[in-house]
Amino acid sequence: MSINNHWIERVIQMAEDNVQKGEEPFAAIVVCGDEIVGTGVNCVHADHDPTSHAELLAIQGACKQLNQIDLSDCVLYASGEPCPMCMGAIYWAKLGAVYYACSKEEAAAGAGFGDPIRHFFADMASSPEERSIAFHHVDSTRKLEPFRIWSLKHNG
Q1: How do strand 35-41 and strand 27-32 relate by DSSP bridges?
Q2: Looking at the keywords, is Oxidoreductase present (predicted)?
Q3: What is the pLDDT of residues 63-81, one digit of tens each?
Q4: Which residues pair with 149 in a beta bridge?
Q5: Which residues does 46 contact at the CB level (< 8 Å), separation at least 6?
Q6: pLDDT for 9-45, tens place per residue?
Q7: Which positions are annotated as active-site residues?
Q8: Would you give the end-to-end CA distance of the chain in angstroms?
Q9: Which residues, in sequence order, are CB contacts of 32 under 8 Å at separation 6+?
Q10: Taking the alpha carbons of 96, 126, 54, 100 in that order, is the dihedral positive or negative?
Q11: CB distance 113 to 107 below 8 Å
Q12: Residues 6+ apart with CB under 8 A from 96
């Protein structure tokens, strides 16, 4: 899959427009062939939702439009390098490629956006007990039951 600068310029313009609306400078589109199948701009503040990231919204829109969760035939274009949350969605959706305009280092140097992202990557690499937000594994004798039921439904 090769880059199409037209799409990068489009998401940069979308990100600029989003800033004019009082939001953050992030936008994304999912392209399948020559068609945009999903779009998104960060609307974290307007929605009061920290998960309202451009990439997530673009992926959700593409999955709904294509009626599938496998986007391996699609490309995501983003105005900025995706954060860890968005990267997780990118991997789950199996996107064929991702192209972004502004790296996390450039965003940090230009507008101070990189510090939280660098912290997230470092923190997630720590063991659960050492993370800045406490993660606790709770044992239960029934912990595998939902997975057993799922396996029976899908593996007969």
Answers
A1: antiparallel
A2: no
A3: 999 999 999 999 999 999 9
A4: none
A5: 21, 22, 23, 52
A6: 999 999 999 999 999 999 999 999 999 999 999 999 9
A7: 55
A8: 37
A9: 62, 66, 71, 73, 74, 75
A10: negative
A11: yes
A12: 1, 71, 72, 73, 74, 75
